[in-house]
Amino acid sequence: MVESVPISNDHDILIRGGLVVSGKRTQKLDVAIRGEKIAAIETHPSELRASREIDGSGYFVLPGIIDAHNHPINLDKMDTFTLSSAFGGVTTVIPFMQNMRSRGIEGTTSETIESFIEESSDISYLDFGVHAILFGDDDVTTEVPKLIDMGVISFKMYMTYPKRGMMMPDEKMLEAMSIAASMGGLAMVHAENGYCIDYLTEAFIEAG
């Protein structure tokens, strides 16, 4: 079990002697934290001190994981989803959200995301952002600027799933990309050939 020892000094927290995972290697280091930021990293044993020390011996120490692709709208809500994520070392999640008209729930994508943010702010255990998914039935000329004004700056569009109403027409996708680019947004594309996939799927089903 990790031991926490109160000691008065420069930093708020010191994780001493943990196996620190960086982009290059894993090594035994001391990590000092002030506020919510890493203030110092030194080879163990170091002269670093803090008001609270944690014995990191035998534990991996790494930055909080950012889970940038998830969908907590099927079986989860943000409370259960972020709680289980936290146990896995995740500190920030960025879920994908879209309008729910295909599920019989009225509202634009921006309205759906606005409600999601409001609800999640009360129940999420972690920091979170949002990616917007744009479908062919979205009015991109109004939705993209509105979402960016809300702080949602990344947009996913599908080149597949036409039968499920998720496919974005090429000209509309280009329009959304142009608007997003002009406002500092980021476009993401699920790049498959939806019609070819549907054709081959039906052909294989018929062939048994």
Detailed description of the structure:
The chain is α/β, with parallel strands linked by helices and 208 residues long. 30% of the residues lie in helices and 33% in strands. The protein contains 5 helices and 12 strands. The strands form 2 sheets. Strands 1, 2, 3, 4, 5 and 6 form a 6-stranded mixed β-sheet that branches. Strands 7, 8, 9, 10, 11 and 12 form a 6-stranded parallel β-sheet that branches. Helix 3 (140-150) packs parallel to helix 4 (170-182).
Summary keywords:
alpha/beta; Urease, subunit C, domain 1; 208 residues; TIM Barrel; six-stranded mixed beta sheet; disordered N terminus; elongated
Low-confidence stretches: 1-6
End-to-end distance, in Å? 57 Å
Give the tally of structural domains.
2
Helical percentage: 25-40%
CATH topology of the largest domain: TIM Barrel
Instruction: Give me the CATH architecture of the largest domain, please.
Output: Alpha-Beta Barrel
CATH superfamily of the largest domain: Metal-dependent hydrolases
Biggest sheet: strands, sense, closure?
6 strands, mixed
Query: C-alpha Rg, in Å?
Result: 23 Å
- Assembly state of the chains shown: single chain
Q: What is the highest CATH level, the class of the largest domain?
A: Alpha Beta
Strand content: 25-35%
Total beta strands: 12
Which structural class best describes the helix and strand composition?
Answer: alpha/beta
Mean pLDDT: 92
Q: What is the approximate shape?
A: elongated
Continuous helix count = 5
The H/E string reads EEEEEEEHEHEEHEHEH
